[in-house]
Amino acid sequence: MKKVTDQVYYVGVNDNKKQRFEGLWPLPHGVSYNSYLVVDEKVCLMDTVEVDFYPQFLANIREVIGDRPIDYIVVHHMEPDHSSSLSLLREFYPNIKIVGNKKTFDMMKGFYGIQEQCVEVKHGDELSLGKHTLTFQLIPMVHWPETMVSIDINTRTAFTGDAFGCFGALDGGIIDKDIDTDKYWLEMVRYYSNIVGRYGVPVQNALKKLDGVQLDYICPTHGPVWHKYADKVVKLYDSMSKYEGETGLVIAYGTMYGNTAQMAEVIAEAASQAGVEKISLINLSKVHYSYALRDIFRYKGLILGAPTYNNSIFPKMEQLLSAIANRNIKNRCMGWFGSYCWAGKAVSILEEWNEKQFHFEPVGEPVEMKQSLNEETRTQCVALGQAMAARLLTD
User: Fold this and answer.
1) pLDDT tens digit string along 30-39?
2) Is the dihedral of CA 332, 140, 136, 226 positive or negative?
3) How do residues 215-272 score in pLDDT, each as one tens digit?
């Protein structure tokens, strides 16, 4: 069995089979579905796991409590990767009481038809388990409207749902102090930027509710339990939800035959030689756009480039443009470039997206290349890279 702290145990599972989270986001390192047991005078389960893993989940629970019944289950978030085992769990533990807020139960009725043995809590309510007392904090739209946090005030342990989670299965250990956390940091940024990133204001509101609360353990529903790095995780969420980009540059581009890629490489080289150290060069034709979004949340500078395609813009770039607009990202500087064979369109489309959707600060002169790179367009690409470097290094 895996112990987190006094009378708190980990009973979650790893998913190393799923290719894409939510059918969208690549999972090169898998993902965990975390669940926790507080074993006191009353036994309380924190969330369930995806129903495909129910047999393993039940075995993990019984390893900790044997034949003892579960008194409560707290549902912090209703997405099916955390709630879809509820119906089966109720069959095995028929007297279990489900703890949630009003919006939790509205969704639970729709998903699973569950309406009985429900205990509704409001913001600030408490639930005594014996030595452990849970207090509940509602944090709507981080990232669903029913989301909440429960805090065990005795062990200063927060059960946070998807907040502070990340992609990546757990390779043996569960607490950050016991494992190599290197692979999780960028996967936390990718998780946040793609799934939670639109909701910067609600995240800030949630952080204000937790401000001043000493948290020794943060137990999310994905990724490690944060203990050693608990403060770092909170600061990272604070920075991302304020859209604070560090000095760095993302150059994301689409390319069909390599000509647009040449432009991107010239721009990157010019920016590097002008003093920008952190540059992320992403070919959307082969790299999933979630990685570009991750780095757009990390860095203040952004240059986008794509060829014209069917009198519009390269589809992979269009996908990224839509994703950027959907996340309400702020405080970025943007340049753009494009290519065409017989009729140019991509550059004007990129400009239109910024004017109507992003409202990022324009930097440098856009570059439009006909067919292939020549000395004139090379010089223009160098100028664009240098202009972005000058802007970023000014800050």
Assistant:
1) 999 999 999 9
2) negative
3) 999 999 999 999 999 999 999 999 999 999 999 999 999 999 999 999 999 999 999 9
The distance of Cα 292 from the centroid of its chain, to the nearest Å, equals: 13
Assigned token pair, 68: 């003892």
Question: What pLDDT score was predicted for residue 212?
Answer: 86
In 242-314, which ranges are continuous DSSP H helix?
Answer: 259-273, 289-298
Those residues whose C-beta lies under 8 Å from the C-beta of residue 143, and which sit 6 or more positions away, are: 162, 195, 196, 198, 199, 202
CA distances to 21, 142, 207 from 83, in Å? 16, 16, 24
Tokens found for residue 383:
């100028």
In whole angstroms, give the CA distance from residue 390 to residue 86.
55
DSSP string, 183-243: HHHHHHHHHIIIIITT-HHHHHHHHHHHTT---SEEE-SSSPBBSTTHHHHHHHHHHHHTT
**Amino acid letter, residue 38:** V
Distance CA 338, CA 354 (A): 15
Whole-model pTM: value is 0.95
pLDDT < 50 stretches in the chain: none
Q: State residue 16's pLDDT score.
A: 97
> What is residue 116's predicted lDDT score, i.e. its pLDDT?
95
Q: Is 155 left (phi over 0), alpha (psi -120 to 50) or beta?
A: alpha
Helix (H) or strand (E) holding 51: none
Task: Work out the number of other CB atoms within 10 angstroms of the CB of residue 343.
Answer: 8
Q: pLDDT of 156-203, one tens digit each?
A: 999 999 999 999 999 999 999 999 999 999 999 999 999 999 999 999
Label each residue of 73-84 as H, E or C: EECCCCCHHHHC
DSSP state of 68: P
Indicate the pairing of strand 217-219 with strand 157-159.
parallel
- Spatial contact of 297 and 240, defined as CB atoms under 8 Å apart: yes
CB within 8 A of 63, min separation 6: which ones? 1, 11
The reported pLDDT for the residue numbered 81 is 96
